[in-house]
């Protein structure tokens, strides 16, 4: 399997969360007053979707993307660790972790370095998603 096949497989599995989130956000946004006002002015459905609904649902979708990126990193590493991901000589943290496992007692750094890299990448994605959520969602702020 090449990296393209792994990405396609992960996308096939992961699209459902985006579809569910998008549907829920659109169902909420279409009942908002600004959409009703746009309908009252005679705006067409595609115009309302592109100029009123999509900008208001983009924030949660971007946050979802950063959080799911962390999950995809772990999934790819897990597949490569099991030998189902990308094949050598293509580098993969999961494959490096699997190869380092054999030398755990004599050279523990061979397994620790890819493990720490996976952990830091996932932590970075999660912190980015958390920061984006706070930045893109002003409703969480308390204004005195």
UniProtKB/TrEMBL annotation:
Stored Pfam families: BPD_transp_1 (PF00528)
Name this polypeptide is given: Nickel ABC transporter permease
SUPFAM superfamilies: MetI-like
GO CC term (a single one): plasma membrane
UniProt cross-references to CDD domains, sorted A to Z: TM_PBP2
Xref: PANTHER family: D,D-DIPEPTIDE TRANSPORT SYSTEM PERMEASE PROTEIN DDPC-RELATED, OLIGOPEPTIDE TRANSPORT SYSTEM PERMEASE PROTEIN APPC
Keyword tags: Cell membrane, Membrane, Transmembrane, Transmembrane helix, Transport
Gene Ontology BP term (one): transmembrane transport
Transmembrane segments: 102-129
Subcellular localization: Cell membrane
Family membership: Belongs to the binding-protein-dependent transport system permease family.
Sequence ranges assigned to domain ABC transmembrane type-1 in this UniProt record: 1-129
Protein topology in the membrane: Multi-pass membrane protein
Alphabetized Gene3D superfamilies for the sequence: MetI-like
């Amino acid at each position: 399997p090449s990296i393209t096949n792994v990405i396609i497989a992960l996308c096939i599995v992961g699209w459902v969360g985006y579809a569910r989130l998008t549907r829920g956000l659109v169902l909420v946004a279409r009942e908002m007053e600004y959409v009703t006002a746009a309908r009252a002015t005679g705006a067409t459905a595609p115009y309302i979707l592109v100029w009123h609904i999509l900008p208001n649902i983009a924030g949660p979708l971007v946050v979802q993307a950063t959080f799911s990126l962390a999950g995809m990193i772990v999934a790819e590493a897990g597949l490569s660790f099991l030998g189902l991901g990308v094949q050598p000589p293509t580098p993969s943290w999961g494959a490096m972790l699997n190869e380092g496992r054999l030398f755990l007692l004599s050279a523990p750094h061979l397994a620790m370095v890819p493990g720490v890299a996976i952990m830091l990448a996932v932590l970075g994605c999660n912190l980015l998603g958390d920061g984006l959520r706070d930045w893109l969602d002003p409703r969480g702020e308390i204004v005195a």
